[in-house]
Amino acid sequence: MALQTIGLIIGAAAVLLVIVGVVSMVRGRTSVEQRLQTFAGTTELEADKKDSKKRSTPVADSLNRALEGRKVSENLSTQLARADLKVTVGEFLALQLLVALGLAVGGYFLFNTIVLAILAAVIGWFAPRWFVSYRQGQRLRAFADQLGDALNLMVNGLRSGYSVLQAMEAVSREMPSPIASEFGRVVQEVQIGLPLEQALGNMLRRIKSDDLDLVITAISVQREVGGNLAEILDVISFTIRERVRIKGEVRTLTAQGRYSGYVISLLPIGLALVLFCVNKPYVERLFTSGFCGWAMVVCGLLMIGTGFIAIQKIVTIEV
Fold first, then answer.
1. Given 246, 270, 296, which residue is the final one in a domain?
2. How far from 160 is each of 37, 167, 216, CA to CA, in Å?
3. Strand, coil or helix: what is 176?
4. Which DSSP symbol is given to 1?
5. In the 3-class helix/strand/coil scheme, how is 124-174 assigned residue by residue?
6. CA separation for the pair 27, 23 (Å, rounded)
7. What is the domain count for the chain?
8. Which of 217, 246, 275 lies at the terminal end of a domain, its last residue?
9. Nearest-5° angle of CA 32, CA 35, CA 145?
């Protein structure tokens, strides 16, 4: 009983650690706009280094130095930027390690099985990555929904005599986040000396969107060869709005299939957890009866995963 109590305490601490980590990633440091304004006389990279030195922990600082210049660090940094999580690569890896260790210890004391402890550690290691992917998807969908209206605002500004940069600044003032923060960052990067093409390229790396790529290509071509940019953006805006409308209709029609996949996949796992809480010895026989019990568990998980993937493939329609 004492071991179960210790396991529950450690498990609760692991959950609390996840919550604290998520809050720190969401709120994190000061916004990019504030840092760019504070360090207007330096480059953004120098500003990031100065800001991280003020708040970095020894573990995160060591990880940042060890991973500096590596491709893995650059890829992870890009993923964090796309999710708008204001933490360094070292801080994120330290959070992953702590969550994995906490869940592993909690799982071992709860289930008293090394295999389930390893499984809990694997889940704890990948849970922050899943959260990053979830944030990226949310942010990308919000950006895509706002892009058509933002282009309309830019077109009206260009027709009334604004420059491209002034039209983007109007978008950053009038539109909500995330599109306002992204266009505002482009404006601020240009103001501290970056070429417009490079600032737009930086935004495209943060927002992986084919529609945005089309807009940036149109702006770049217009700056090279000239032409009526307002008319081009107006046509692109109409195309994007129609695509967003069709995507919304498709998501509405496939909502029942998507949620059916979630329910069918999570129902067996939830039922197993309820049975474990109600009658622990009954469920423990799966893990103590040798090869047969483990084979049933693995087979069940494979079938659940296969069914979930099949349902998602069916209801995923490219527009």
1. 246
2. 28, 10, 21
3. coil
4. -
5. HHHHHHHHHHHHHHHHHHHHHHHHHHHHHHHHHHHHCCCCHHHHHHHHHHH
6. 6
7. 2
8. 246
9. 15
Question: How far, in Å, CA of 105 to CA of 93, rounded?
Answer: 18
Same domain, 236 and 259: no
CB 119 within 8 Å of CB 107: yes
Cα–Cα distance measured from residue 13 to residue 18, given in angstroms and rounded to the nearest whole number = 9
**CB-based contacts of 243, cutoff 8 Å, min separation 6:** 211, 319
Count Cβ neighbours within 10 Å for each residue of 164-192 and write b for 16 or more, e otherwise: beebbbbbbeebeebbbbbbbbbbbbbeb
The domain in which residue 231 lies consists of: 139-246
pLDDT (tens, 9 = 90+) of the chain, 319 residues, equals: 455 555 556 555 555 555 555 555 545 444 444 444 434 333 344 444 444 444 555 656 666 666 666 777 788 888 888 888 888 888 888 888 888 888 888 877 777 777 778 888 888 888 898 999 899 988 988 898 899 889 999 999 999 888 888 999 999 999 988 899 999 999 999 999 889 889 999 898 888 888 899 899 989 888 888 888 889 989 998 988 888 888 888 888 888 888 988 998 999 988 988 888 888 888 888 877 778 888 888 899 899 999 999 998 888 887 6
Tokens representing 104? 């592993």
Q: For residues 82 and 206, is the Cβ–Cβ distance under 8 A?
A: yes
Domain-located, residue 166: yes
Residues in the chain: 319
149 and 180 share one domain: yes
- The one-letter code for the residue type at 271 is L
3-state secondary structure of 226: coil
CA distance 219 to 193: 19
- Other C-beta atoms lying within 10 Å of the C-beta of residue 253: 11
Instruction: Tell me the CB-side half-sphere exposure of residue 254, using CA atoms within 13 A.
Output: 16
CA distances from 191 to 124, 137, 196, 220, 279 (A): 42, 30, 10, 18, 65
